[in-house]
Design a protein that fits this description.
The protein has 246 residues and is an all-alpha fold. Helices cover 80% and strands 2% of the residues.
Length: 246
């Protein structure tokens, strides 16, 4: 019964955070991102599904890092999510993040008692949401870069605090491993890691900064090349709709 309560409590926290992030994205989209792309429900859902599928596949390709324990692995799954949220807005970003994680769980399952997968969603949203809001407030290449920088910083601060306060203790609880043992995994790769706070400082902080920098660079390189293709599709849809109306 105790294990059931722990698992149920974790599920409820996951649902509450998803609901909070979705409502936050919805509010920001309505009051800040007024210049975002507006599509029909069908095309909107199709784009979200395509980008989520790409992100889910990229989430399967994980790269271990020499300065962090083995359960911290970097992937490029935020790249399609960023492109999607730059194109469609904050709500699309949050929904794409969720579908991406669900697809990964269907394809591979979990090796972190679902804590790592939940962390990927929550911390990913802390990156995607600020970047999207800054960009959509006044869309331009400069605002895209500024948004990515802001998103990286928010992700680093939020991700570090969330790991220290909730994720690492919850991982230890659900995985049945003492928290000291998790810290010890960090000590093996970096002797300066001797506590949860030093694990966050020397592993989680550089992990999030590196992840943000790589995803930001690739987004800046790819979005402007992909954007004309997306807008060309918009023009074709408008032309088809005009013919249908006539």
């Amino acid at each position: 019964m105790e294990t059931l309560k722990e698992n149920l409590g974790f599920v409820l926290v996951c649902l509450a955070i998803f609901a909070a992030l979705f409502l936050l994205a919805l509010g920001l989209e309505r009051w800040v991102c007024r210049n975002r792309k507006r599509l029909s429900d069908t095309h909107y859902a199709a784009y979200v599904a395509i980008f989520a599928a790409m992100a889910g596949v990229l989430m399967l390709i994980e790269i271990p890092l020499p300065f962090a324990p083995t359960f911290y692995k970097i992937d490029l799954s935020e790249l399609p999510v960023l492109i999607c949220t730059f194109y469609l807005g904050p709500v699309a970003g949050v929904v794409t993040e969720l579908i991406k994680v669900l697809l990964k769980l269907l394809l591979r399952g979990t090796s972190t008692a679902f804590v790592g997968d939940f962390a990927n969603f929550a911390v990913g949203c802390s990156f995607v949401l600020p970047a999207s809001v800054v960009y959509h407030a006044r869309p331009s290449r400069r605002s895209a870069l500024l948004g990515l920088i802001v998103g990286t910083l928010v992700m680093t601060v939020f991700g570090s605090a969330f790991n220290a306060i909730y994720l690492l203790p919850k991982f230890a609880e659900l995985y049945g491993m003492p928290l000291d043992a998790i810290v010890g995994m960090g000590t093996k790769v970096n002797p300066r890691i001797t506590s949860v706070s030093t694990l966050v400082l020397f592993a989680v902080v550089p992990f999030n900064l590196l992840k943000g920098a790589i995803d930001s660079l690739l987004t800046m390189l790819l979005y402007k090349r992909i954007s004309p293709l997306l807008h060309r599709g918009d023009a074709l849809r408008r032309k088809t709709a005009g013919k249908s109306a006539a």
